[in-house]
Amino acid sequence: MTTQLSTPNPAKDRDRPDAVRPSKPPRSRARLLILPTIVLLVLALGYPVGWQLVTSFQEFGLKQQFGQAPEFVGFANYVELLSDANFWVVLGRSLLFCLLAASFTVLLGFLLALLMKRVHKSVRLILQIALLLAWAMPVVASMTVWVWLVDWRRGLLNWVLVKLGVDAQGHNWLADPVTFFITALVIVVWASVPFVALSIFAGLTQISEEMLEAAAMDGATGWQRTRHIILPVIAPVLSIVMLLQLIWDLRVFTQIKLLQDAGGVANETHLLGTYIYQAGVGSGSFGIASAVSILMLLITVGISWYYVRSLMKEEH
C-alpha cells in the first residue's frame, strides 16, 4: 500500500477560505514608528528655521534685544537686501568659492583614493591614518597653524621664500583679496579632502579586480579603464560627496572669519557666512541677517534638488 504525498499548491491554498495569510502592519503603526524621528527633526531643525523665517519679515535690531516688540515689515528686509549691490558681490563670490573648493576637493580626493588603491597595504594604512588625523583636527587648532604659516611678520611661508631668493619679507598675504581667497581655498580643500578621499576609496573597493584585469588584457589603457569602468561604478559616491562639499563650502565661516581677524580686509573678503555674522552680530540687523539666511537656505535646496530628485526616482 502506497501513500501519496500531496504537493502544496500556493495558488490553490490562497483561495481557501481558511488559509492563513501573512498580515501586513497597519499604516497607523508604521506612522507611530517614525513619529519620534519626525518630532526630533522638527525640534532640531524646524524651530530655528521657523524663527529665522519669521524674523526675516520683522525689524529686529538692538532695541528688540532689550525687550521692545519687533515690528512686522513684510518683505522690506528682502527688498533692501536685493537692492544692495554689495550683497550680489558677496553672493557671486560665495558661489564661485564653493564651486572651486568643491571641485578641487573632489578631484584631489579622487586622485588620493586611486593612489591608496594601488600602493602597498602598509603605505595605504599610513595614508589613511594621516588623512583621518587631518580630518579629525579641530578647525580652530588647524587655523592656528595656518595663520602662523602665512603670517607676514614671522610666518614660515615668507621665511622659505626669502631663503629661495624671493623678496617676500614682510609681505601680507591676507591683505590682498586675491591671495586671501587663495589661502582660504587651500585651507578649506586641505580640511575636506580626507573625507572625500576615504569615501571614494570605499567605493573603489567595490570594483572587481577581475574586471579591471580583463580590460587591461583587452588593451584598455589606464585612462580608458578609469573613464569607462571606474567612474561609472563610483558615480553615485562622486555625486553625493560633490553635493555635500557644495553645501559645506557654501556656508563656510570659521576659516574665513579667523583669516579676517589675522589681517584680512573684512569688507573685501566676506562670504555669505561672514556676511550674515556681520549683519547680525556686527551691525545688530538681525532681520537682514535672517533674510540672508533664508536666501542661503533656498540656494542650498536648489543645489541639492537635482540629487534629491534622482533619489526619489530610484526609490520609485
UniProtKB/TrEMBL annotation:
Pfam families, alphabetized: BPD_transp_1
Transmembrane segments: 32-54, 87-113, 125-149, 180-207, 228-248, 286-308
Principal location class: membrane
Assigned keywords, A-Z: Cell membrane, Membrane, Transmembrane, Transmembrane helix, Transport
Positions of the ABC transmembrane type-1 domain: 91-307
Region (Disordered): 1-26
Biased composition (Basic and acidic residues): 11-21
Cellular localisation: Cell membrane
Topology of this chain in the membrane: Multi-pass membrane protein
InterPro entries: MetI-like, MetI-like_sf, UgpAE/MalFG_permease
SUPFAM superfamilies noted in UniProt: MetI-like
Family of the protein in this entry: Belongs to the binding-protein-dependent transport system permease family.
UniProt-listed PANTHER family: BLL4140 PROTEIN, DIACETYLCHITOBIOSE UPTAKE SYSTEM PERMEASE PROTEIN DASB
Protein name (record): N,N'-diacetylchitobiose transport system permease protein
Organism: Glutamicibacter protophormiae (Brevibacterium protophormiae)
